[in-house]
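The instructor's notes for this session suggest beginning with a concrete chain rather than abstract definitions. Hand out the sequence below and ask the class to guess, before any prediction is shown, which regions might be ordered.
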Amino acid sequence: MAGDLKIDARRRRILEILNRDGSVKVSQLSETLGATPVTIRADLTALEKDEYLERTTGGAILTSKNVFKVDSMRRMQVNIAQKKMIAAKTAELVNDGQTLILNSGSTAFLTAIELKQRKNLNILTNSTEVALELGSQPTFHVVLLGGEINAQYGFTFGNDAMAQLRNYKADFAILAMDGICSDIGITTFHVEEAAVDRAMIDRARRVIIVADSSKYEHEGFSFVSDLRNVSTWITDTGLDKDSAKKIEALGVEVIIAGE
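After discussion, reveal the predicted structure:
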């Protein structure tokens, strides 16, 4: 057998195999990952507790209830180091007692985790993950916008969500985007969320886009806004200086996390 993988990497690999095959066996995982059956069973038990899978005799299965969590975990790992730096830099701009709007997306979620260092925040969000992550913070007031729900990607949308947003005004809208282009503006893959994102922009005094450098000059399926409505873009060192200057020339402050 190969040497043991680190525990986080091993469990992530278990979920990758589970997502691919729909079910796993302890004996097969033990051989593939070079870990004892006892270790694999412990991994499966821990992953079941976190609702990533359902245990069965001798293994585990992926249920429809768990597909979202596995997919979410996979998306979270893309450019994870850059996203964490962006999240930390974004949280530095937030003061105790402020009101924030957050949308869905892995970078917005990582920013929510960093915001736990603050106190007395008012959070408006259409992300079920963000709401659950911050809802237990004793000094936070968290509002999950109502409306229709996209269960696969964990966000609410529709007229009810936008109507509810009109009741609030926020210091910042912190928005994860799938694309930021100098000529087009900001875009998302999700048609349903684009209108909510626009409403979030309308209700915030300052709009902060959190997106890693791979999103630059990448166009998502749905248009959200041109860049004149964006105050700040927080990204990573993968964005070259010429590209940063190109965005700044359009009136957007570019902050490079990690510099």
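Then share the key points. The mean pLDDT is 90. Residues 78-257 form a domain with the Rossmann fold fold (CATH 3.40.50.1360).
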